[in-house]
Design goal:
mainly alpha, binds iron/sulfur cluster, globular, Fumarate Reductase Iron-sulfur Protein, Chain B, domain 2
Length: 176
């Protein structure tokens, strides 16, 4: 049962939610989600575990914490989403583009200590298994952004990148 796993990983109780909808009404990314936060919690409550883990909601949550601060029942959907990500990873229910995004993001942070947006996005576009038409569309968009100075194609690296690696080693394998 997801309820028990979420309690264990995130110390959050989805059963405390009384479905007021404040979280969904406050979420800046709800428009792009399969189901809003309120609906996901309801699905957890009634045991639709597989549908929850397969939804794009958990991956689109940007951890802005707005829903958490506005919840009258002190339920943190943000932390629930973290727990769901952990569970989905363990069960290997992760969409390919999400996997590629996280792996590439982590590699860049460990190698450079920061994100070089231009290089990062280039790599993502090439690895994400997009169609030729989508790649061309993304490349054109990238060129437009680069021309306007919105993204850079230069690589910069922080001075003590080994400190980032040490920090990562400290949290590696920990949940939430
Ligand atoms: S704001 Fe809190 S109580 Fe209201 S629906 Fe969202 S999680 Fe449930
Ligand atoms: S933390 Fe996630 S679910 Fe909550 S409001 Fe922000 S993006 Fe939406």
């Amino acid at each position: 049962m997801l309820v028990e796993e979420i309690k264990k990983i995130a110390d959050e109780n989805p059963l405390a939610c009384f479905q007021c909808g404040n979280c969904t009404g406050s979420c800046p990314l709800e428009f792009a989600m399969d189901y809003g936060p309120r609906k996901i919690i309801h699905m957890i409550q009634i045991g639709l575990d597989e549908e929850v883990l397969k939804s794009n909601t958990i991956w689109l949550c940007s951890s802005c914490y707005t829903c958490t601060y506005r919840c009258p029942r002190k339920v943190s959907f943000t932390r629930i989403a973290y727990a769901l990500k952990n569970i989905a990873l363990k069960k290997n229910i992760v969409p390919r583009n999400v996997k590629v995004f996280y792996e590439t993001f982590l590699r860049h942070v460990l190698e450079y200590g920061r994100l070089n947006e231009g290089i990062f996005v280039n790599e993502l576009v090439l690895k994400a298994g997009k169609s030729f038409r989508e790649v061309i569309r993304d490349v054109n968009l990238g060129i437009r952004l680069w021309r306007k100075g919105k993204i850079s194609m230069k690589i910069s690296k922080i001075k003590r990148v080994e400190d980032i690696k040490k920090l990562y080693e400290l949290v590696e394998g920990k949940e939430v």
